[in-house]
Specification:
The chain has ten helices and four strands. By secondary structure, the chain is of the alpha/beta class.
Length: 224
């Protein structure tokens, strides 16, 4: 099976570049596209944003319609699916998922699609494997890591920063948002090679992992 994977930022791409080969074998193919922020689903699903700005949800109705047309031409013995990976942030999970699923009603034909939502943020998937964090950052603060509740809405990237960065989140914030984005990418590159995808404690990561495994196994055509 072939997977087209859409993520909202560069750190998410770096994370999945390392993790996906740990989940599916080389008989399957994948390509990851990173965007420059999550944005929002357009009102009435009318896309009027500039595609060059590469904001994920702003462009998602157009992207899914395009995938529906493209996937229709794939051979039956090698189907394709699109996986949309984004952060929940402070949104309601059920309402957000319903909005995403509604997009598919405007696609003819509908692409095989999975919406995988990191709760609260992508760093929850890193914090789902504390031994991997400790392998990458041996001096990480145990008290901070041990107090973390998996997939809690608690300021997830800030919690990881407090655990592994000199000066914690305050020191990182002082460097500005560009530095924060670069640091998130470094976390992904440092931690993900140590991660055991079968033992991650993040429920939202496990949902993502299980969707990939199920699709790779049987090419399920339902959209969730």
């Amino acid at each position: 099976m072939h997977f087209e994977i859409l993520v909202e930022d560069q750190s998410g791409k770096k994370m999945l570049d390392i993790l996906i080969p740990k989940i599916i074998d080389e008989t399957h193919t994948f390509k990851i596209y990173s965007y420059k922020g999550i944005g929002r689903i357009p009102r009435n699903l009318v896309v009027d944003a500039n595609p060059a700005k590469r904001i994920l949800l702003d462009q998602l109705p157009r992207l899914l319609r395009g995938y529906g047309q493209t996937f229709a031409d794939y051979p039956p013995d090698y189907p394709a699916a699109v996986i949309v990976v984004c952060d929940l942030d402070d949104k309601c999970l059920n309402a957000f998922r319903s909005e995403l699923l509604a997009l598919l009603q405007f696609c003819t034909p509908q692409p095989t699609t999975r919406f995988c939502i990191a709760i609260e943020e992508g760093e929850a998937w890193l914090l789902g494997d504390i031994p991997a964090v400790k392998s990458a950052y041996p001096k990480a603060k145990d008290a901070v890591l041990n107090a973390y509740v998996n997939d809690a809405v608690c300021g997830t990237w800030e919690r990881l920063a407090d655990a592994v960065c000199e000066g914690g989140v305050a020191g990182l914030l002082a460097k500005g948002w560009q530095a924060i984005g670069m640091e998130k990418s470094r976390w992904a590159e440092a931690i993900c090679p140590h991660m055991d995808v079968a033992r991650n404690r993040s429920p939202s990561f496990n949902y993502f992992r299980n969707q990939l495994i199920t699709l790779a196994k049987n090419g399920d055509k339902t959209s969730t």
